[in-house]
Design brief:
This protein has 255 residues and is an alpha/beta fold. The chain has one domain (4-16, 37-254): TIM Barrel. 44% of the residues lie in helices and 17% in strands. It has twelve helices and ten strands. The protein has helices at 4-22, 25-31, 38-42, 70-79, 97-106, 120-129, 143-155, 167-174, 196-201, 220-229, 238-241, 246-254, and strands at residues 49-54, 57-58, 62-63, 84-88, 111-114, 133-137, 159-164, 180-184, 210-214, 233-236. Strands 1-4-5-6-7-8-9-10 form an eight-stranded parallel β-barrel, surrounded by seven helices. Helix 2 (25-31) packs parallel to helix 6, helix 4 (70-79) runs parallel beside helix 5 (97-106) and helix 4 crosses helix 12 (246-254). The longest helix is centred in the first third of the chain and has 19 residues, at 4-22. The chain is globular, with a radius of gyration of 17 Å. The termini are far apart. The model has no long low-confidence stretch (mean pLDDT 96). The chain binds indole-3-glycerol phosphate. Indole-3-glycerol phosphate (IGP) binds at residues 53, 55, 137, 163, 184, 188, 193, 214-217, 235-239.
Length: 255
């Protein structure tokens, strides 16, 4: 069976190697200033937060939205009450660093750099692009890397959303002091989603962490179920970019 995550990670190694030879880490370090933890200032345990994702394409489903640019999506989300934006920089999602930097110029909300981080270089790069937070996917990192990358993000004033999909990932996430844990309802091998995944895993999370349910949220009803179960927020891409009225859907899912 096709393993989409493994394919993406294999390509990512080459992408990072090419980026390093174009702009060495030392050069990035000389350019950047630490951020001010804008995600953790905004997200409080017990509040409800929508992270709205600028997602034009998915590797499993192909093109999701042909009518809007990433910048247009970002503007609608911000005007319609999202707490934060997630912007892909990986080409499988039609993301790129340039679009991320453009969104940074356009909006004031905190921005999550959505990518597959396998090397500390990408964390410094995220800060250079103006990210407030990064995604760390437990499945593709060792527990030691997870901790190390979390501290690297913190040293740059950025927050990290540590993503888990099953009990083993959750255990790894809980072994770090991660403040934000994202339960991905999507199996990253098959890309199938089911919000039941969050409901199943929530009891094993510790209640001091901010818990975000990611992927496969398509309605206010889904959001309501997740909120009632104890989530502090949701991360939504497809459910927004494919809806007929993106602004109205953003408003519905924001509270
Ligand atoms: O479009 P959705 O089903 O609402 O999902 C958004 C987001 O959770 C998803 O893009 C995502 C979360 N973590 C990932 C890791 C890899 C690829 C994609 C993702």
């Amino acid at each position: 069976m096709r393993d989409i995550l493994a394919e993406i990670v294999a390509e990512k190694k080459a992408i990072v190697a090419a980026a390093k030879s174009k702009m060495p880490l030392e050069e990035i370090k000389a350019k950047i200033k630490p951020d001010t933890f804008r995600m953790s200032k905004k997200f409080k345990k017990g509040d409800w937060n929508l992270i709205a994702e600028c997602k034009l394409q998915s590797p499993a489903k192909g093109r999701l939205n042909k009518t809007h640019t990433v910048e247009e999506l970002a503007r609608i989300y911000e005007e319609s009450g999202a707490s934060m934006l997630s912007v892909h920089t990986d080409p499988h999602f039609l993301g790129c660093n340039e679009d991320f930097a453009k969104v940074r110029q356009l909006v004031k909300l905190p921005l999550l750099r959505k990518d597959f981080i396998i090397d500390e270089y990408q964390i410094y790069e995220a800060r250079m692009l103006g990210a407030d937070a990064i995604l760390l996917i437990a499945r593709i990192l060792t527990p030691a890397q997870l901790k190390e990358f979390l501290y690297t993000a913190w040293s740059l004033g950025m927050d990290a959303l540590v993503e888990v999909h099953d009990e083993a990932d959750m255990k790894a996430a809980l072994s770090t002091p991660a403040e934000f844990i994202g339960i991905n309802n999507r199996n990253l091998k098959t890309f199938k989603t089911d919000i039941q995944q969050t409901l199943d895993l929530l009891p094993s999370a510790d209640s001091s962490r901010v818990l975000i349910s990611e992927s496969g949220v398509f309605s206010a009803e889904d959001a309501k179920v997740l909120r009632a179960a104890g989530c502090d927020g949701i991360l939504v891409g497809e459910g927004l970019v494919r809806s007929e009225n993106i602004g109205a859907m953003t408003r519905k899912l924001s509270h």
